[in-house]
Amino acid sequence: MHGRVQSPGKKVASRPNRWNRLPVWPIYVAGFIPAVWSFHLGATGGLGADPVKEFEHLLGLWTLRFLILTLLITPIRDITGASLLKYRRALGLLAFYYGAMHFSACMILDQALNMTMIIKDIVKRPFITIGMAALILMVPLAVTSNNLSIRKLGPKWNRLHRLIYVIAAGGALHFIMSVKAWPAEPVIYAGIIVTLIAWRGIRKPFLRWKRGPRSRVAAVSR
Amino acid sequence: MRSPIIPRIPYSEVTPKHLYLNRREIMAGLGAAALSGVAGTSADATPLKAAKGPFGTNEIVTPKKDATTYNNFYEFGTDKSAPSANSGKFKPLPWTLRVDGLVHKPRDFDVGELISKTPLEERIYRMRCVEAWSMVIPWIGFPLATLLKQVEPLGSAKYVAFTSVYRPDEMPGQRGLFQVLEWPYVEGLRLDEAMHPLTILAVGLYGETLPNANGAPIRLVVPWKYGFKGIKSITRISFVEKQPPTTWNLMAPNEYGFYANVNPEVDHPRWSQATERRIGEDGFFSSGRRKTLPFNGYGEQVASLYAGMDLRKFY
């Protein structure tokens, strides 16, 4: 594979990268461990009283976790200068795979492929509608996650992949709406995701401030 | 780890503890529990003697481990495992239950005494959670009506209001800045629902005193209603004239009604109530989602209580 993949149209001022030396494949290997382990626990009676629900829940949680990790790459670079961009595609794809597994578990293990029930749920229940929409929105991002698409789409690729903010917000909302009351866990996930999205709004002033007074003057006089 | 291949023995085929423990041992156990003051956790549960009660079912009883480690009791935390994990500090005895309001003879009951003096029955009931899962639980208790009659309600009493306990020192879910619900938890029943022979006060399950996690020392069980109506660790029962406030209804009035009768036709706004998963029975690969029954299968006994009522409106 070609060494460094950068989003086009953006110059990245990162330090000579000591963070980029590890290959990408271990992320995929490590990324699938939670799914395999949860499945093993479920199949052997290790997921407690309601194993199907727990399995669904774990896959959903890992979807959100990988979305969060994907959204963390930019703020980490902004704040520390370390670019982990090389690993972002793997994290984003893992979020998609987990989302797809989460939905499959609901369809197959929970609803036993009762299609009328599944369709009724998707149409009728806002939290399922939102979750489903977020999953469908991930499809074009996964399909265009290859180098060829990045080259071909140019600046359009960046615009398309901003959908990740909508997807992550949808995922957080889906989690909150699926529970009774306001327990801490979904609220914490939503808080993290909102913060990461908000960062996109304040990162430019932050970077100007970080570069120091001279660049601030330059920015003003421009 | 439990192997899915080994068939579970239905609870009904297990010799209940009270058949092989003699009465003296039972009384000694009760006394010791009362003295130590920490009875109720699974570790020091005390066997209870109970006669077979009516309204039984021949469905497979949920494994005790599931019924005592997977439930909602937000006072100990919002996770299903929180009640059993975080209830070790809770002291269910001694316990006073006040029964007052519109009655001739308001009274404070010593619950330890109630447990030892009231004739107890075992009632094997289906329990349907509003979250669309269900269990079959062998409760031990007595009809709520037996207690209510003792205080002689006035004619003006139309509803019964229940109050649970507020002990942030012993209940971690009641501590901290961010509170999920308002404490103490409150519930209510119409008088005819409260007096119905299906409605019981439970003081035990699976042949033993209630674990803290399941609402020790005394809780309400109303099997035709969603589980959240079954208020736990009751401190006060009051006869009132008007429909009393109930905790989940206060939290989200459009999602949780006062009646909360199990009804497959009336969905929760965010999920379907048409089916349920039976805990401990429907395995990982054999999703046996089963159809939810009107009034949780107790329609024959209770449907008449709601004759002429629009159950979509009074959900």
TrEMBL record, chain A:
Binds 1 heme b (iron(II)-protoporphyrin IX) group per subunit. Heterodimer of a catalytic subunit (MsrP) and a heme-binding subunit (MsrQ). It comes from the Bacteria. It comes from Chelativorans composti. It is found in: Cell membrane; Membrane. Residues 59-170 form the Ferric oxidoreductase domain. Part of the MsrPQ system that repairs oxidized periplasmic proteins containing methionine sulfoxide residues (Met-O), using respiratory chain electrons. Thus protects these proteins from oxidative-stress damage caused by reactive species of oxygen and chlorine generated by the host defense mechanisms. MsrPQ is essential for the maintenance of envelope integrity under bleach stress, rescuing a wide series of structurally unrelated periplasmic proteins from methionine oxidation. This is Protein-methionine-sulfoxide reductase heme-binding subunit MsrQ. The keyword Transport applies. The keyword Cell membrane applies. Keywords: Cell membrane, Electron transport, Flavoprotein, FMN, Heme, Iron, Membrane, Metal-binding, Transmembrane, Transmembrane helix, Transport. Belongs to the MsrQ family. HAMAP family: MsrQ.
TrEMBL record, chain B:
Mo-molybdopterin binds at N71, Y74, E75, C129, S164, N214, R219, G230, I231, K232. Part of the MsrPQ system that repairs oxidized periplasmic proteins containing methionine sulfoxide residues (Met-O), using respiratory chain electrons. Thus protects these proteins from oxidative-stress damage caused by reactive species of oxygen and chlorine generated by the host defense mechanisms. MsrPQ is essential for the maintenance of envelope integrity under bleach stress, rescuing a wide series of structurally unrelated periplasmic proteins from methionine oxidation. One of its GO terms (molecular function) is oxidoreductase activity. Its cofactor is Mo-molybdopterin. This is Protein-methionine-sulfoxide reductase catalytic subunit MsrP. Keywords: Metal-binding, Molybdenum, Oxidoreductase, Signal. Pfam families: Oxidored_molyb. Its EC number is 1.8.5.-. Heterodimer of a catalytic subunit (MsrP) and a heme-binding subunit (MsrQ). Predicted to be exported by the Tat system. The position of the signal peptide cleavage has not been experimentally proven. Residues 91-248 form the Oxidoreductase molybdopterin-binding domain.
